UniProtKB/TrEMBL annotation:
It comes from Amnibacterium setariae. Keywords: Hydrolase, Metal-binding, Protease, Zinc. It holds the Pfam family Peptidase_M20. InterPro entries: Bact_exopeptidase_dim_dom (IPR036264), Pept_M20A (IPR047177), Peptidase_M20 (IPR002933), Peptidase_M20_dimer (IPR011650). GO terms for biological process: proteolysis. This is M20/M25/M40 family metallo-hydrolase. It comes from the Bacteria. Residues 187-330 form the Peptidase M20 dimerisation domain. GO terms for molecular function: metal ion binding; peptidase activity. Belongs to the peptidase M20A family.
Length: 431
C-alpha cells in the first residue's frame, strides 16, 4: 500500500469526537488498524493506551534529549455540512485524497508513522527517544494528551522539542509577501468560556417594564463589541515581522526592522482585523444566547456564552475583570473558566535549528516564520516539560484547503503528504 492508501483506510474509520454520536468501537478499530498498517512501529515501539484511547508510542534511542510528536486521531462531526464527497469514503482521485481527517489530524499522524516505519526498516536508531502521541479527544478538549504529559513529567522526561499541529506551508497569507511561508507557532492563545447572566422579575409580555433582562444583556454585548481588547505587539509577532524581512520590499523591510516600529506593529495589525488582528489582541465571540420560555412571557433570565481567545500578555483573571468593567452593569454577572495563553517558545536554538533543517530538506523554498496560533491544541499540555513546543504541520496547503478543515470537503494533496513524510524523516534522522 502507498502512504495515501493507508491514510485513506484510516479516514474511512469515523472516529468522531462528539458525545452525542461517539462510537467507541470505531476508536478501537482505528487503533487495531494502525497496528496492521504499521507493523514495525507496533512491533518495536513501546505501546501504551492512556485515558481510555490516547496512544503513546515510544521509540527508544540514544542518550540525546527526546522529542515528542503529537497528532490526534479524533475528528469533528460532518452533520449538516454540504459535502460533495463521502466524508468517510477516503476517495483518492487526481492526486487528492478526500475525507474528514485528511488534514486534521490523521494526515499528520500518517506522515509521522510513515517516517518511523521506514527508518525502522532501515535499521536507524534515533539519537534520543521519540514519543509519538495520538490523542483520542483533542477536538473536545479532553484529557488524553494531558494524561500523557503528566506521565512524562512524572518520569522526568525533558524533551528537546515538542511538535503538534498548527501552522502549515502557505502562500498569499501576508499581503505583499511572495513565495511559500512555513508558519510555525511558538505558542497558542488561551481559551476561555465566559457566561453572562442577568435576571428580572418576568411576567406577562403585554406589560413590558424598562430594563428587561434581555435588554440589559443586549446592552452588555454591544458594549463589549464597541470596546475590543487593545492590540499589542507580542514577542511572537515581533519575531514574525523580523522573519518576513527577506521577502519584503526594501522600504517596508526597513520600517519593520526598526526598533522604534515594534510597538506600533501590533496596533497596525489590529486595524487590519481578521487573522492579523487576532494575532495581536484578545478576541471575543458571542457563540450562544438563551432567554425566555414562551412568546408571551417576559424572560426571567437571559444568558450569553462568549468564546474568548486570550492573547499573550493577557490572562484569564484580567480578561474577566475587563469584561465586567466594560459592561458596567452589576446586574450582569460574569463567570469565566479556561486557560491562560501558553508560554512562547524560542525562534532560535537547537530545537528551532532542528525544525528548520528538516524544513529545508522537505520544503526548500519555504521561509520559516514564527507566529502565535489562534486555535488551541494538545501541545499546551506539554509546555511544562521544558524545551521548545512548536505548532506546525509540514503540509503545503492552499487557502481553500485550509478553509475546509472542520468544514465540508476536507482534503489533502498526495504530494503534500509525501513532503510531510520527508520532513519527519529528516527531523527524526537528525542528530
Amino acid at each position: 500500500m502507498t502512504p495515501a492508501e493507508r491514510l485513506a483506510a484510516l479516514v474511512r474509520i469515523p472516529t468522531v469526537s462528539d458525545p452525542a454520536v461517539r462510537d467507541e468501537a470505531a476508536f478501537a478499530a482505528f487503533r487495531e488498524r494502525l497496528g496492521e498498517l504499521y507493523p514495525l512501529v507496533h512491533e518495536r515501539l513501546e505501546r501504551r493506551v492512556v485515558d481510555g484511547g490516547t496512544l503513546h508510542l515510544v521509540w527508544r534511542g540514544g542518550p540525546a534529549a527526546p522529542i515528542v510528536l503529537l497528532a490526534h486521531h479524533d475528528v469533528v462531526p460532518v452533520t449538516d455540512q454540504p459535502w460533495r464527497e463521502d466524508p468517510f469514503g477516503g476517495r483518492v482521485e487526481g492526486g487528492v485524497l478526500h475525507g474528514r481527517g485528511a488534514l486534521d489530524d490523521k494526515g499528520p499522524l500518517v506522515a509521522v508513522l510513515e517516517a518511523v516505519e521506514r527508518l525502522l526498516a532501515e535499521g536507524v536508531v534515533p539519537a534520543g527517544d521519540v514519543h509519538v502521541v495520538s490523542g483520542h479527544d483533542e477536538e473536545v478538549r479532553g484529557g488524553g494528551a494531558r494524561a500523557v504529559a503528566a506521565a512524562l513529567a512524572a518520569e522526568g522526561v525533558r524533551p528537546l522539542l515538542v511538535l503538534d499541529e498548527g501552522g502549515a506551508v502557505v502562500e498569499g497569507v501576508v499581503p505583499g509577501v511572495r513565495g511559500p511561508l512555513a508558519m510555525i507557532g511558538l505558542g497558542e492563545k488561551g481559551v476561555a468560556t465566559v457566561r453572562l447572566t442577568t435576571r428580572s422579575a418576568g411576567g406577562h409580555a403585554s406589560v413590558p417594564p424598562r430594563g428587561q433582562a434581555t435588554v440589559r444583556l443586549a446592552r452588555a454585548l454591544t458594549r463589549i463589541e464597541a470596546r475590543p481588547f487593545p492590540a499589542r505587539t507580542n514577542p511572537a509577532v515581533a519575531a514574525m515581522a523580523a522573519a518576513l524581512r527577506p521577502r519584503l520590499r526594501r522600504p517596508v523591510a526597513a520600517v519593520l526592522g526598526a526598533r522604534a516600529a515594534a510597538p506600533a506593529l501590533g496596533p497596525l495589525l489590529g486595524l487590519l482585523g481578521g487573522v492579523p488582528g487576532a494575532l495581536v489582541r484578545t478576541t471575543v465571540a458571542v457563540t450562544r444566547l438563551a432567554a425566555g420560555t414562551a412568546t408571551n412571557v417576559l424572560a426571567a433570565e437571559a444568558t450569553a456564552v462568549l468564546n474568548v481567545r486570550i492573547a499573550p500578555g493577557d490572562d484569564l483573571e484580567g480578561v474577566t475583570e475587563r469584561l465586567a468593567r466594560v459592561i458596567g452593569d452589576p446586574s450582569v454577572t460574569v463567570e469565566a473558566e479556561g486557560e491562560d495563553p501558553s508560554p512562547l517558545s524560542r525562534a532560535a536554538g537547537p530545537a528551532w535549528d532542528r525544525m528548520t533543517a528538516a524544513l529545508a530538506a522537505s520544503h526548500p523554498e519555504a521561509l520559516p516564520v514564527p507566529y502565535v496560533m489562534v486555535q488551541a491544541s494538545d501541545a499546551r499540555h506539554f509546555t511544562g516539560l521544558g524545551g521548545d513546543v512548536y505548532r506546525f504541520m509540514p503540509f503545503a496547503i492552499t487557502a481553500e484547503e485550509l478553509a475546509a478543515i472542520h468544514g465540508a470537503d476536507e482534503r489533502v494533496r498526495i504530494a503534500a503528504l509525501d513532503a510531510a513524510i520527508a520532513f519527519h524523516r529528516a527531523l527524526l534522522a537528525e542528530g
